[in-house]
Amino acid sequence: MKTLTIVLLLAVVSVVSAADSWRFRAGAARGDITPFVGGNIVGGFNPFPSKHIHDPLYARCLVLDNGETRLAFVVCDLIGLSHFLCDEVRRVVEEETKLPAGNILISGTHTHSACSALGDRFATEPDLDDYQKFVARRIADVARCAINNLAPARIGWAVGSEPRHVFNRRWFMKPGTVPPNPFGGTNDLVKMNPSRASKDLVKPAGPTDPEICLIAVQSPEGRPIALLANYSLHYVGGPGPAHISADYFGMFCDRMQQLLGADRQDPPFVVSLAHGYFGYLPTVEQHQLGGYETWLGTNRLEIEAAPKIVKTLLGMLEQLK
């Protein structure tokens, strides 16, 4: 019973008044963006072809409408999206639904177990490849379905903190100890993923962001509609060799649906875990292993770390009152 009250607990943190709830509406939807097997997985330094689908990739959308302004939040199980792809999504959604392009926020979870929707990152013209065209069309469809699902709702939001899983992997080093950069320079002072036992470590090059921000919406009767969470942790994955996966982001979404007993709803309850400032914030375990290369080669820890982080996040949600 305790887990069934998570969204209710969130909703009482800050709630739209009963009088306004008739004006406030929310809708959510998701769509499958899993690529064909055989496309290159781009999470590592050297792309390699996928051989299996461990779990599907999704584009998830939450639309909020207070009667005056309409906003859409889109989170995709992708390592990233090109701005040309996002521009195409906004163009199509605005054309088909009248939702202003400037009111559509699009992000990727940064899963390392997906094919690329970045296209040619040095391109100066919007020439989308086949997968990018598919993703753009599917995101537009998902946004349209979320708008179709708009219904009276109430909203709650909260902020929690979970500092145990974030660690800054960029460190100031003693002068002269950083290897030459790609341009031959030898005066750099900061290194990414230095050895944890190095005598040349000085201090982390910046802070961490431990906050977990949450938005929850439900119907006036209490039926969960959507949950949007944000955490600044670099990816944790490792589902299997050459497997396509949403990594721990997908695990979090699936588990939340189960815990709330909302995984067989119509319209579906949509959970999204978006990323904050994550680029230099891997897990503490990664640092303890001694560097990124070791982390990638230790499949056991990746598999164990993702469920542990999901469990920690869910535990924090239960404590929000």
Distance between the termini: 15 Å
Our estimate of the beta-strand percent is: 15-25%
**Biggest β-sheet description:** 5 strands, mixed
The SS-based structural class is alpha+beta
Order of helices and strands: HHEEEEEEHEHEEEEEEEEHEHHH
Q: Largest beta sheet: what is the strand line-up?
A: 7-6-5-1-8
Provide the number of structural domains. Answer: 1
Counting DSSP E segments of at least 2 residues, the number of strands comes to 16
Rg over C-alpha atoms, rounded to the nearest angstrom: 21 Å
Overall mean pLDDT: 80
Low-confidence stretches: 1-19, 289-303
Helicity level = 25-40%
Shape: globular
Please summarize what this structure is.
The chain is α+β, with helices and mostly antiparallel strands and 321 residues long.
